[in-house]
Amino acid sequence: MTDATLSYAIDEEDRLVRVDEGYYRFAAENGWDEAGTSLGRSLWDYVAGEDLRKVQRLLLRRVRDEVGEVELPFRCDGPGTRRRMDIRIVAGSNGRAVFFSARLREEEEREEPMPLLDPEAPRGEELLPMCGWCDRFEVEGKWVEVEEAARRLNLFDRAELPALSHGICPECSELLLAA
Ligand SMILES: [Zn+2]
After folding, report:
1. How far apart are CA 49 and CA 55, in angstroms?
2. Does residue 89 contact residue 98 with C-beta atoms inside 8 Å?
3. Model confidence pLDDT, tens digit, residues 70-127
4. d(CA 89, CA 175)
5. Which runs of consecutive H residues, i.e. helices, occur in the chain?
6. Do residues 127 and 163 make contact, with C-beta atoms less than 8 angstroms apart?
7. Which of 34, 93, 146, 164 sees the fewest Cβ atoms within 10 Å?
8. Residue 128, SS3?
9. What are phi and psi of 67, to 5 degrees?
């Protein structure tokens, strides 16, 4: 990633009202084709999974009504890349607007790309829970990194990958609710 920051803002109805160049660049680098139509749309259109939406709504409410500002780590991995990022969420001084700015803290290439993180990869019917905040997967009751998930599930020997069921893991849920 050439420029490691991106920012966006929402209005009182949680609609995206401002996105910066970094936002579009990040979208392009991650093959996210719909970015061009982001303005005016609901932030929640872009958050996959009921549970993650619920926790993020609670977090936003706390930012608006109580704390005013939070900074949290999150992951935004690609198949071949580990990305540790931080997001700062700040309530506007008047009204209900909220500003988000995300910054890349650390990026490293994986030794081997992980198709499990490839949105284009063909998938079967079986569902694998994924945390949308830390990009880990739940396998046999444990939340593990993608490499570990692929190993435990023997994905290298399988013809097709499981479909992803997007949600949030207990650690991230706690992190967001305690922010
Ligand atoms: Zn998580």
Report:
1. 10
2. yes
3. 999 999 999 999 999 999 999 998 768 999 999 999 999 999 999 999 988 889 999 9
4. 14
5. 21-29, 50-62, 146-152, 170-178
6. yes
7. 93
8. strand
9. -90, -25
The DSSP bridge pattern shows strands 98-109 and 69-75 to be unpaired
d(CA 53, ligand 1 centre) in Å: 13
Note the residue count of the chain: 179
75 CA → ligand 1 middle, Å: 9
Q: pTM of the prediction?
A: 0.90
Q: Contact, 41 vs 163, CB < 8 A?
A: no
The alpha carbon of 124 and the centre of ligand 1 are apart by a number of angstroms equal to 23
Distance (Å, rounded) from C-alpha 55 to C-alpha 128? 20
**Distance in angstroms (rounded) separating the CA atoms of residues 30 and 15:** 22
H-helix or E-strand containing 105? strand 98-109
CA 136–ligand 1 middle distance (angstroms): 6
